[in-house]
């Protein structure tokens, strides 16, 4: 049933495992390593076909300097201005919907819950044209607000599923005890349930942060230009009319990938807390 | 240098100020969408716009620079949704869908006989005409042709080919020396289309090529087969680098830089990366694609980039003033010089920057292209037709024996498209 721990297998197996693991890991990381290596190469390396060899010179400061000297900081700022409100909005809404669906028994509870889930099964590409027309009609086309509102609406479905199931698993006795004390429902939500949801909120925030940060599709459908576009869409602005600037795009990608990675490491404690929650009751 | 710049700025400012009755101080807004996203052209355009701004201080100009590739997918969107007043695009069939959808402004009034535009930009009027009306103005173009390693040609005792036989015998010598004749990266298809354009223009001539573009000639026509037969000669003798369908055009450059291929058929934009890759002007040279069928007038590909006014623009008078400014001889000289776009100005009164390849291209286009000037395969042919045909070219360059199948397939698409 469970995988046998490697220490208990035979010596040959262990050796094979030890040899294979670094190889597979290297293969797995190869694209990332290539991007990291490309980001410190000079442009001329690409012109003479030196893709995998030793860089002819190290241009780290120059490449990254150009990234920060371009419109990239603006795009990164946009990404933050889009991602953070979306995370706050989607998580706040789903805490409330999750509470309502997880705690109260009412007619249509399950139906509403299924509708939230069903929304996740709609391939978002088919929404492209209607959503674009909608944002245009309300005058939110090519604005960060438009993108944020759409993301909140679309992410709330998944978040609700996550939150509802989490709240459902909380001991119901806690809520009943609070009710017996005569505490108002909103106070139960605020003072009893919400503190218990902290690990779920942290885990969901990291997840949604990465989702939205990495979104490319809606960024190019709903926005254009550096006033509103996030970094995923802005990264190709290094490309020239005829040439792809691999070194600058690589450097830009690394810079753009840092925030979600940092986010993960900062929130790691909550992540692990969320995973082990309930294991030691 | 600074004083020259200053003088140009001043003269441009006066030029704009004196540009007729429209010179009355412009007010209101002007929204410009540009696809000139790479640093040099971007700076060029921004500098030119700044001069326009200086001449019209009361005008509120907003400029929106969009990455060139993203621009191609966004143009229809922003033309219908959030239309700018002025936008960049391409001539010929590339603008036709937007003209037909009623998204571009008819600017025939600017091209009326006797105007400066009509006089100075006559060479590209055809490329900007759809249904007898003009829909934009050109600002830059560049030549296509064969960029070759002069040092390798000299080492092998070869000279620039004057006709197709020379081209083939040069190539034989090149192969005998262990090299390939031409490097090409055909992953994104347009590079192969360049070869088709030239071989077809040289085999059958400009008018035939344009009739094909208009869908009037079957792809299974014997004259079309003749084009492919000539192309096939090069492919079968191994003139092109191997595995070319998996490389993009930039990945094909190392072959000419390290000398394992002798030449490349490309637009003038290849010069700058080749120079950056280490080739000097003594090593790199340019020649016109040689004649194939004797008596067929030489015609060239010279893709033209353009400015247009959106049909939904809110400030069309300001937009017209801007277009008039951007096509003026001074503005075109300035923007096309080597430090900026490094291409050819369209205005006949503008001067070409002193660059070896720009001069050769300018000379070729102005005096040695009597047959006509084409835009480029995917700009002359309708998009669907071009896509199907270019996929066929890619297959042909790898499996020349599949020609019958390929032509039947392309012909099937032609029947549907037109």
Describe this entry's structure for a reader:
The complex is a heterodimer of chains A (281) and B (418). Chain A has 281 residues and is mainly α. The radius of gyration of chain A is 24 Å and the shape is globular. Chain A has helices at residues 11-38, 43-47, 60-69, 72-103, 109-121, 128-137, 144-169, 172-180, 185-196, 198-213, 217-222, 231-234, 246-266, 268-276. Chain A has 14 helices and no strands. The mean pLDDT of chain A is 87. With 418 residues, chain B is an alpha/beta fold. Chain B folds into 2 domains: 2-141 and 303-350, Periplasmic binding protein-like II (D-Maltodextrin-Binding Protein, domain 2, 3-Layer(aba) Sandwich); 144-301 and 371-417, D-Maltodextrin-Binding Protein, domain 2 (3-Layer(aba) Sandwich). Chain B has 18 helices and 13 strands. A 5-stranded mixed β-sheet of chain B has the order 2-1-3-12-6. In chain B, a hairpin with a 2-residue loop joins β4 (129-130) and β5. In chain B, α8 crosses α10 (222-236). Mean pLDDT of chain B is 89; it is low at 12-22. Chain A binds chain B through residues 43-44, 46-49, 70, 132, 136, 141-142, 220, 224-227, 233-234, 236-237, 239-244, and chain B through 35-39, 41, 64-70, 73-74, 77-78, 81-82, 248-251, 253-255, 257-258, 267, 269, 273-274, 276-278.
């Amino acid at each position: 049933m469970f995988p046998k721990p490697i220490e208990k297998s035979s010596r040959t197996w262990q050796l094979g495992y030890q040899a294979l693991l670094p190889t597979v890991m290297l293969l797995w990381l190869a694209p990332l390593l290539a991007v990291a290596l490309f980001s410190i190469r000079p442009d001329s390396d690409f012109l003479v076909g030196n893709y995998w060899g030793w860089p002819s010179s190290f241009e780290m400061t120059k490449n990254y300097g150009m990234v920060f000297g371009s419109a990239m900081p603006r795009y990164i700022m946009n990404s933050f201005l889009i991602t953070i409100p979306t995370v706050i909005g989607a998580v706040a809404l789903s805490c409330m919907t999750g509470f309502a669906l997880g705690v109260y028994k009412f007619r249509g509870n399950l139906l509403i819950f299924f509708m939230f889930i069903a929304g996740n099964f709609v391939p978002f590409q088919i929404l492209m044209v209607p959503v674009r027309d909608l944002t245009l009609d309300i005058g939110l086309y090519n604005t960060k607000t438009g993108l944020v509102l759409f993301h909140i609406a679309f992410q709330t479905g998944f978040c609700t599923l996550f939150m509802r199931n989490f709240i459902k698993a909380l001991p119901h006795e806690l809520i009943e005890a609070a009710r017996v004390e005569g505490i108002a429902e909103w106070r139960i939500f605020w003072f009893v349930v919400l503190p218990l949801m902290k690990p779920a909120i942290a885990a969901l925030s990291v997840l949604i942060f990465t989702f939205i940060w990495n979104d490319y599709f809606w960024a190019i459908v709903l926005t254009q230009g550096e006033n509103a576009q996030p970094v995923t869409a802005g990264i190709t602005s290094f490309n020239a009319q005829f040439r792809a600037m691999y070194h600058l795009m690589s450097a830009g990608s690394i810079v753009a990938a840092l925030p979600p990675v940092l986010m993960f490491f900062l929130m790691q404690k909550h992540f692990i807390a969320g995973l082990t929650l309930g294991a030691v009751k | 240098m600074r004083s020259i710049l200053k003088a140009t700025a001043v003269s441009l400012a006066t030029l704009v100020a004196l540009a007729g009755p429209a010179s009355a101080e412009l007010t209101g807004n002007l929204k410009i969408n540009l696809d000139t996203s790479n640093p040099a052209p971007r700076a060029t355009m921004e500098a030119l716009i700044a001069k326009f701004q200086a001449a019209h201080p009361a005008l509120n100009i907003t400029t929106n620079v969009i990455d060139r590739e993203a621009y191609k997918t966004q143009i229809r969107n922003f033309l219908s949704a959030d239309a700018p007043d002025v936008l960049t695009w391409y001539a010929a069939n590339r603008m036709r869908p937007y003209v037909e959808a009623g998204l571009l402004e008819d600017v025939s009034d600017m091209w009326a006989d006797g105007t400066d535009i009509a006089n100075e930009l006559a060479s590209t009027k055809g490329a900007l005409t759809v249904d007898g009306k003009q829909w934009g103005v050109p600002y830059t173009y560049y030549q296509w042709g064969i960029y070759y390693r002069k040092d390798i040609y000299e080492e092998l005792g070869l000279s620039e080919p004057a006709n197709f036989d020379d081209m083939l015998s040069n190539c034989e010598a090149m192969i005998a020396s262990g090299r390939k004749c031409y490097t090409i990266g055909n992953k994104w298809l347009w590079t192969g289309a360049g070869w088709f354009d030239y071989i077809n223009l040289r085999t059958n001539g400009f008018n035939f090529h344009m009739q094909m573009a208009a869908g009037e000639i079957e792809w299974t026509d014997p004259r079309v087969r003749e084009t492919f037969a000539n192309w096939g000669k090069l492919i079968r003798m191994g003139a092109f680098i191997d595995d070319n369908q998996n490389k993009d055009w930039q990945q094909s450059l190392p072959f000419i830089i390290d000398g394992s291929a002798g030449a490349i058929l490309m637009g003038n934009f290849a010069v700058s990366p080749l120079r950056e890759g280490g080739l000097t002007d003594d090593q790199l040279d340019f020649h016109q694609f040689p004649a194939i069928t004797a008596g067929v007038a030489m015609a060239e590909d010279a893709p033209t980039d353009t400015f247009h006014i959106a049909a939904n623009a809110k400030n069309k008078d300001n937009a017209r003033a801007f277009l008039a400014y951007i096509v003026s001889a001074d503005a075109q000289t300035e923007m096309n010089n080597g430090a900026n776009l490094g291409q050819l100005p369209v205005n006949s009164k503008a001067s070409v920057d002193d660059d070896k390849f720009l001069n050769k291209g300018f000379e070729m286009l102005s005096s040695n292209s009597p047959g006509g000037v084409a835009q480029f395969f995917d700009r002359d042919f309708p998009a669907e037709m071009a896509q199907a045909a270019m996929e066929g070219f890619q297959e042909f360059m790898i499996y020349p024996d599949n020609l019958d199948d390929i032509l039947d397939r392309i012909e099937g698409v032609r029947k549907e498209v037109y």
